[in-house]
Amino acid sequence: MRKKIVAGNWKMNKTFKEAEDLLFGIADALISGRPEDVEVVVCPPALYLELATDVATEHDFSCGAQNLSEHEAGAYTGEISAAMIRSTGAEYVILGHSERRIYFGEHDQLIGKKIQQALRHELIPIYCCGEVLEEREAGRHFQVVEKQLSEALSGLDAGAFSKVVIAYEPVWAIGTGRTASPEQAQEMHAFIRKVLASRFGEPAADDTTILYGGSCNAANARELFANPDVDGGLIGGASLKAEDFVKIVNSF
Ligand code: 13P
User: Fold this and answer.
1) Is 235 strand, coil or helix?
2) More exposed terminus of the chain, fewer Cβ within 10 Å: N or C?
3) Atom of ligand 1 nearest to the CA of 167
4) First to last CA, the chain
């Protein structure tokens, strides 16, 4: 049985005190009720990971980073390694986010190296894929996502792939308030599962958690999560308010 996950990507938001308040806010809201079979993952800026994992351990949620270096260690000023992230107690790392692709020039080959680096250090990669608006309008969205999957995951065998979580995040839906319809999400998630089955076999594809991301919020999460191939969400803006985020967790 594949895992259901609701993950919050805080992106570059919150000062230390605000991060502390949000973490305790999430912890408090989770105490009031949550589905037992949904894993909650909070991905704050790396600076707050140790604080976050302390709160998370006490309150039964998990933490993740938003990026890592493809290098092991050494003279890479400003970078953060997989080993450092893992040593904070974090278990996940978001990789291949469209903001990393667009603003930092990350491409599938580099992201593939980062995925392997994460797995080497027992971090679970949340690999993000998704098309931009022009690609969807040109009817190329399936082709684009298939290429992103095949290039970034090319170095993995089925065993290594079994640790990976996929997030479908159509770029046109991120931070725009324009969510993919439940039908569009289901159609793409089913397609992704088919691509994964052809590459890693049907059992591996069946066991893969595929999250939806892009303007997912407390008002639309239930409809999105009701789809058979949507196993949860990767939440941006709505993960910055404890109450909204936990409402989304409770949308299954
Ligand atoms: P929004 O939920 O703010 O659209 O962001 C989605 C996202 O990019 C999560 O990684």
Assistant:
1) strand
2) N
3) 10
4) 16
